[in-house]
Write a structure and sequence with these properties.
By secondary structure, the protein is of the alpha/beta class. It has nine helices and eight strands.
Length: 280
């Protein structure tokens, strides 16, 4: 595999910078962390980009532990050199609500990253990953914007095919109405776009991981994330015939499973992503 060639030519660890993206839609600066692979400044290559979406209440720092992991994977030849972008979104659920985060993501953030860095500016040059609320966002983006992403990874995704449980920040954040409006949630939830997605030309392979010891919801086990993960896999792959992988592992809702899950997920996604030597 060509990635092994990259490992033999590994240029050392990458760099991580905090970057403020000017967002016309949000009407403010949008903080992000950007990881550039080692050797970025010494080549003319264009690189694939993986967008990293954090969980509820998080910010651009939530993925900091992953950048050394990317260094190790690139050095080992497990993945090609790539750019990673981790924006902040609080409790937005990555959709248009109190602020128009979904619109800003596609109209402001991605174009700004493509202008500022040597990215592969096409669908095959992008992947998206997220944990918890970020898993909801990553799935939303992969399905509703399938022309923009070639693969997705969902780590303990906060998915609820029907309605979110009472304690979910989906109900309290104001994103889906203040007070919460079930019809607004339904319009932005993945079942609303799944049928159309399955009829489209582009289908992004999806890697789904959940722990078997995630919180056991007192309102009913159907709210449990591992149950929702199995349901999603069935709808995508078993019923829909769309490429997907499912892993239910021992563990809870934390980085003990997300870090190894991310490694498995990004290795899976990179099978479908253009590498730095691609013609752009």
């Amino acid at each position: 595999m060509l990635w092994l060639i990259y490992s033999s030519l590994w240029a050392g660890p990458g760099t991580v910078s905090r970057v403020d993206i000017a967002s016309e839609i949000l009407g403010r600066e949008w903080p992000c962390k950007v990881y550039l692979p080692g050797g970025y400044d010494s080549t003319a290559s264009r690189y694939p980009v993986v967008y990293l979406l954090h969980g509820s209440g998080g910010d651009e720092n939530e993925w900091d532990r992953i950048y050394p992991v990317l260094d190790s994977l690139i050095a080992a030849g497990s993945i090609p050199p790539l750019i990673a972008v981790a924006p902040a979104s609080g409790t937005s659920w990555w959709v248009d609500g109190r602020e128009r985060f979904e619109s800003a993501f596609f109209s402001d953030l991605i174009p700004a990253i493509d202008r500022q860095y040597r990215t592969i500016i096409r669908r095959e040059g992008r992947a998206v990953a997220g944990f918890s609320m970020g898993g909801y966002g990553a799935l939303r983006y992969a399905l509703a914007h399938s022309d923009m992403f070639a693969a997705a990874t969902l780590l303990s995704p906060a998915l609820y095919a029907q309605q979110p449980p009472p304690e979910s920040s989906a109900r309290s954040s104001g994103t889906f109405g203040d007070p919460f409006q079930a019809e607004v949630w339904a319009a932005r939830n993945y079942p609303a776009v799944l049928e159309t997605y399955l009829l489209q030309q582009y289908r992004a392979p999806v890697f789904i991981l959940s722990g078997d010891d995630d919180w056991n919801h007192p309102e009913g086990f159907e709210y449990n994330i591992e149950q929702q993960a199995v349901l999603l896999y069935g709808l995508l792959n078993r019923k829909g015939g769309s490429p997907a992988e499912l892993r239910i592992v021992n563990g809870g809702h934390n980085w003990r499973i997300w870090q190894p899950g991310f490694i498995a997920g990004i290795e899976y996604m990179m099978q479908f992503i253009a590498h730095p030597d691609s013609t752009n």
